Structures are given as structure tokens and as C-alpha cells.
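Record type: ASSEMBLY
Status: queued
Input:
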Amino acid sequence: MFVMTPMGRNNQKKMTLGDKLLGLNWSLVLLVSIVASIGFAMLYSAAHGHVDPWMSAQVKRFVLALVGMFVLAMIDLRVYMRFAYAFYLMAFVLLVYVEFFGEIGMGAQRWINLGFMQLQPSEMMKIALVLALARFFHGLDWETIGKPWVLIPPLALVLAPAGLVMKQPDLGTAGTLIICGGAMFFATGVRWWKFAIVLALGIVGAYYAWNSGLLHDYQKARVLTFLNPESDVRGAGYHIIQSKIALGSGGVWGKGFLQGTQSHLDFLPERQTDFIFTMFAEEWGLVGGVLLLSLYSLLVLYGIAIALRCRSQFGKLMVYGLSFNLFTYFFINTAMVMGLIPVVGVPLPLISYGGTAMMTVMAGFGLMMSAYLHRDTKISRHGQEET
Amino acid sequence: MAGSKQQLQNQTKVFSRRVAILGGLQTVLVGALVSRLYYLQVVEADKYRLLAEENRINLRLLPPSRGLILDRFGVPLAANFPNYRAILVAEQTKDLEQTLGDFARLVPLSERERTKVMRELKRNRAFTPIPVKEDLTWEQMSQVELNLPELPGISIEEDQKRYYPFGGLTAHILGYVQVASEKEVAEDPDPLLTLPSFRVGRNGLEKAFDKTLRGSAGRSEIEVNSVGRVIRELARVEGTPGADLVTTIDIGLQEFAQQRVSAEQSCAAVVMDIFTGELLTMASTPTFDPAVFYRGVTAAEWQALNADIYRPLTNKTIADGYAPGSTFKMMTALAALEAGINPNFSVFCPGHYIFGPMRLHCWKKEGHGHVGMLDSLKHSCDVYYYDIARRVGVDAIAAMARKFGLGQLTGIDLPGERPGVIPDQAWKLGTLGEKWYPGETLVAGIGQGFILTSPLQLCVMTARIANGGYAVTPHIFKRFGASAPPSTDPVAAAAQAGRSDVLGYPAIDVNPEHLAIIRRGMDLVSNDPRGTAYRRRIDIPGMEMAGKTGTSQVRRISMAERSTGVRKNEDKPWQHRDHALFVAYAPVHQPRYAIAVVVEHGGGGSTYAAPIARDILIECQRRDPSRRNPNAEGGRREMP
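Status: finished
Output:
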């Protein structure tokens, strides 16, 4: 899977489009297609064995996204580095824009209606943040990173959009941004104790806020319901209880394709979007669930392998950030439907019905592939190719 | 730059190490997901499987059909009739207004029904069936069925409604069924009561045998989705229909008797087999229409029924008490005979009786002259009974009356029976807290004063006199199950043989010779030209009856009324007039049937009650069930 291409490590000659296509890691494309196909089957089942309304639309979207992925893969890695900040700025401006003019719907995410699609700046920001952070840390040496004030600009890069998204309020995406940012900070070599300090500060701050008079009782109640939705059987807890029932009743081997009673009788809410993993595990059981988790893990691992293989720090960090983003995505979604963490409204990438998550993830794969194609490209401190 | 190269390697090393650390963390997290899945889908799987089934499976009760009530020959008295109702499912209509409009063209809908449908439509989900019109006639139903293709969303549903072919003729015996009250639902664990249209027995046999008539509920397991829409039926267990109940009633006689008593404003008559205690008829007028209660009685109807002075809702044969008047004289006479008074003992009747300061009148102002026991019954001489009552005392009379079933519940298998009153010294002290006055004994001797008896009790008394002193008890329940009776029915055999003892009825502790004297006296009442009921006798050979008249005073004519010209009973307002009573058995020489008739505020017993008893007894003997073989008729007769 991770075989070296004929292009040697010092082969700096310009690659043609044909070279690039040949050099693509097709195994990744296959893996992505397999996961997406599982999604198609699930959407087919969610519609009680009908192609419409979800599966057909999802297939079209996937084909489109696949083309987009290839296009992104063809673009030179240095172009991404060059435009990283600009892209980040654009995403940020859009985030601010939707804060004031955006439309709210489904999971409290704000979006801009472009007519043919709904643009969620918070999703764009996931990629933009990874690019911007990779660009920032690219070329910073171990010593420089050790200096605390150096970390102030990237912290701002993470916290500013995270704060805006949190205000929407979309806790899932905000959390994803912070976690991915944190992972990139960590991977780039930020000292351990700094993470320890941030964590300690966070815990002390939360403890203080809880016990001082700063929070009203109703706010505390809201936080508690958020942390333990099952205390509210009819409201927020209904989803998670039904999800656990559907999951648990699936057993080891599942009820069989198209046979999931809880999902098909509408007891399971949002079965085509956020809770699609539940329906999958109800129909395919523990066996299917573990298989799907393995496929996702494999995709993440793929990203890590590409990151390690990349020669440039920018490529490494970008790919690693994107891979971690994928990990956060599927982990939050599956942990949520299993009742391990509160329901935050994060879709299952490639499988949940909807274009935004698919776009983000597929774009991420496109960038990873670009990095793979240009894994041996050395990039200078300022984005110029080194010779 | 060697330093930068060194740096780069260093940086790569840091990156790889950190990625490995995070990779470890990621592995742990994925491991947590897998263990959670294992926990939910393997460890807790059974619990969630059960919850999932509870989620999706709804139990629906299937109401069993209510048991029929049949007369002794198998004629249905209470039956189940198909009820057709039109149902509308909103989501199946193309245009709701148009569908309703088209439907209304076939079956007229009132404005009220229409608004009710619209209200229900708003309240319910679009897939919920909503009743549009209940109780369609056959013609309407077939019209709708025929036009179903043009009526999208409309369908016909069938269930059963209780139907009483004889209506008011059997209303007091059968009672009726009604939707259960909230209290009944709370007290009765039977899940059937929770069905909104389920009806329970109220009054009569419907109430007394409600549990058995009801049957038990069937169950249908249906799969529903989260909003309750029915997806499919998974399993179905049919319930047990209620058992059919065969009564002792002869509906032909019941019809005749009920129509006969309807000639009076308020009247009750009951006929009993003297050996078996089987009630052949139980008539009470006025009566009511049980169908009114089935569909739900309106407040105005309920008020009208309750305000009616003739009390149509009361079964007067069991739920009412009347002073028995002279029909009680058999008890006084028996008590005297048992106390050792010679049947030839005679009393001179000058038309009144002086007792201390009291002057008590005989009904015949001129008096009866010298009267013996047989004559006293024949003429119903009051003075004779004043005298012997004074001699034997009230306690002996009361004891005798109780032996013959008066003043206590007869144990009839119908709800709402009242015990009546047979007073004695202890009773008065206990109830009124007063001492018994000797003068009251004299009044009790002619069946007036505190005494209250129901027509059924009088009938039981007469039967016990006629059957030779066996304590038969009345009943209206014969058996469960509509099958023809076995040819060796012990009850039928006992009736034929004229023996109550084989049915387990104990003999009353009274000298049979004394009973024979009483029967002779009753014979004279009807069949001696000077008897009080001679003019109302049965003159068909072999069907003659022996009886006793009774006229019980409700209110004495006061001096004030006398001065305004009220002299006779007929002049008084209806509620103050005397009750007319008559008890009898027939045929006189081979008794088989006993009857009691009370015409409430009717007047003289011989004039008003005796003819009714005569007519019913003639009809009864004509129809004599013992001469008919129910098997020969193929068990069940066609419904009228």
C-alpha cells in the first residue's frame, strides 16, 4: 500500500498529469469508495429499501466529490502552502458573516444558502485551520517552538474560529477544531508541560465557574442535561435511549440488511444522518460495527503513514491534521450514538446523508493525496522549493 | 546548512514520536468504542432486545361477543346485532371536503355530526380512523359499500351491538348494557373494560351474570412505529365468547303477561313453577326501552324516567314493597291453626271489632255474622282475623310469614331485590325503638300496618302453600349453553312428578293438614259462588284456580275529604288509592303454577287484580311447558 513510486527521492523533475494519476494511491481511493458504498447501502435501507430520496442524491454527491478530490490531488502542495493564510482568512470572514446573516437549521449550524448548495463556513474552517497551522509551524525549529510567545499566533488561529462556532452554537464542530488544533500543536513538538498547564487551568476554571455564583441555576441544569441526557427521557434523552436500544437489540450478528426494526419504525431519530451508525450496527450487529470502525481506523492510519512519509514539515502537519480531523469526526459521532459522550450533532463522515461533511472529508483526502504525490518535495521556510 | 539539516532530522524525530504517542491514544479511544459496542450488543443485548420489542409491539384487545340470553325454549331475548359504522382515514382521501360531501349525499349527516368529524380530524393524526357515522342501516351500508371507489378514505367497519328483540317486554328481567364508568374501570381488573366502546351489564340478568356473559378478551399483537401507526399484525389469539344463558322465562307467556299488565297504569305480575321455583314470567309495567340506555341516555330522558310517578325503571316484582292486605290472611290463619285453634272455631262479625278503646272495621259494614275459618277466607272477613291475631300474637304470625318467604330476600338471581318487612315485637323495638302495641297485632293480622311484601314474595308464599309446604326459592337462571336440555332433566322431571323435595328444597315445619285447610279456603274464594273472586274464576274445566284477593289501604279517607265528597277509593288522587292484590295457584286440584299480581293504587283486589291473574293463568296453562317437548322443536325457535 505504501510502496515507493518509481520517482526516486531525489527526483525533482516536473511531474506530468499522467505521472500524477499513475502515482495516486488508488488503494486509498478504493478504501474511501468502500466506506461510501456502505453509506449508500445504509441510505437505501433507511428509505425502506428505496433508492430515493437519499441514496441517489448521495451517490451523485459522492461522484462529484470524487472528481473534486482528484482535482485537489493534482494541485501542487506548494500552492496550498502559498494560499493557506488567504484561505483561512476567507473562511474566517465567512464565519463572521454567517454569525450575522447566516441561516440556522439542523443541528444549529449556520450556513449560507448558495442556491445549489448550503455552504457551512465552519466546515471550511476545519480544513483552513489545518492549512494555516501547518503553514505556521512549517520551518519552526524545536528551539523556536519552545518559546512561549511563539505559540500566541497559532493559539489565536484556533481559538478565534472555535469561539465563533461555539457561539452558533455548534459545540461539536468547535470541539473538533480545538482537538485537531491541539493535536497539531502536540505533533509539532510543543512541550508537554504547556498542555498540562492548559488542562489544569481549564479544570480549575470550570470548577471555579461551577461553584461561584457566576452560573444561574437554569444554566447549570442545562449543562447537566447536556452531560447526562438520559435524565431527560422525553426530550434530549429520547434520542440517545432509542439509539442504545436499537444498537443493543442488534446483537452480535445484527438483524440483517433492511431488517432493523427500531430504525425502520422511526423509533430511531435521524437515522439517515447523525444516527446512521446506529442503524448500521442494528442491522449488521457487533461484527459490522467493528468492521466499520476498522475501516475508519485504516483511513486514519493511511493519513498518518502519508504524514510520516512526507518530507516537508508543511506536508506532514497538514496531512496529520486532516487525518486527525477524520478521526475526531468518526470518533465523536460513534461515541455519541453509543452514549459515551453527549449528543453534539456530528455526522458520520462519508456515510451520513448530507453534502457538507462529505465535501470536507473528500477535500481532505484530495489534499492528502496531493501531499503524497509531492511527498519528496522540499519546501523552504517561505514556501519556495529548495534545491 | 548543516545546522538546519540537523534541525530537520530532529524535528522529524519529534514529529514521529509525538504521532506515535497520539496514535496510542487513538488506539485506546477506538478500543473504548469497540468495548462499548461489545457491552451494548453482547452483554446488554437481551435487555435492549426486550426494550426494542416493547417499543414496537402493541397489544390490542379483541372484544369477545357477549353471550346470548335465551328463554327456556331457546328464543333469544338478548342478542348481538352487527353494527355498521363508516370510518374515515384522512390521509387516504384526495379531497377531504369532497369525500365527506359525497358521503353525505348517500347517508345524510347532520351539522353536529359533521362538526364532530372535523374536530376529531384535527385532533388526530392523518392515519387514525375516525368514525363518521354509527349504526348504518343495511341499505345505507350497501350504498356506501357500492360506492367505495368514489369515496376514497371511507371504509365500513363492523362490530356488534346488543339488541333486545322484545324491547320493553323483557327490559326489567334483562336489564341493559352501558359503557363502563370510570369507577367500574378502576375496580374491575378485566382489561376489556378499558376498551372505549365496551359495555357492561347494568341491572337485570345482564348485571347478575355480567362476568360470564362477557367472555374473555382476545389479543392481537401489532407492530407499530414510533407514532403509533399500525404496520402489521404479528400474532392473534382469539378470545373466548361469553357463555349463552338460558333463562326459565317463557317468552310467549312473558309477552302475554306484560301486555296484559300494561292495561293498568302501574302493575306487577309474576308466575312461578311451584315445584321448581322457575319463574315463567315476570311482568312489570310501565317499562322502558333498553335501547335508549345502550346508545347513552340523555340527561333529559334520564330525568323524565326518574320523575315519572309510575316509576318505569323499577322492577316492581322484586324492588318494591306493598302491604299485602288480605292476601296475608293465609299466614294469620296458618299461625292460628299451628297454635292449636280449631278450624271450626267461629267468630261473630257485626261489621266491626271492639278492642279496648279501638273500633276496627270489617270491609263489609253490615258484617258477616258467624264466620268459621273457611268462610273467613272465602269472605275475607276482617273481624275473624282481628280475633285470631289477638289470640296467637304477632310473633307467631311473623314467624309463620317468614317460613313462607315473606319479609326477607327470596334469593332471586336478579340485582335490586328488596326484603320488605314482616314486623314483630323485636323488630319494632329494634327499628323504631318503640314498644309493640296489641292493637298493631290486629292490624298486622289483616296484612296492614308495617307489613311490606314484594309481589315475588307473595308468589313464593302461594307456591309453598300449593306445593304442600316445600321451601322452593325462585330463580330465573336455568343453565349456561344454548344446547338442548338432556331428555332426563331433573328439574323437568321434578315438575312433572310434582315433587320439590327431589330438588333439595326442605319441607317447612307446618302440618300438611293445616295447609290443606288453607288451600280449601283459597279454592272457595274463587270457586264458591259467594267467594270474593268468584266472578273472576276460571271456568275452563281442569284449569280452575284457587286464590285470595287483597286490597291494601294506602291512606285512609280523612274526615276533611269525606266532607268534600270523597267517599270512594276512585275519588282519591291516584297516589292515595288502595293497592289491588291477588295471589293464586292453578290448576286447583293438581297445582302447578303460582301467581301474584299487584295493581298499584288499582283499587279492589277482586275487581282489578284477579282478572289479570285469571287471564295470565289461563294463558300459562294453555302454554303449559310440561306438555311441550322442547327437543321436538329443534331447540331454538326463530326470532320474531
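Annotation: Chain A has a mean pLDDT of 85.
Annotation: The CA atoms of residues 290 and 372 of chain A lie 28 Å apart.
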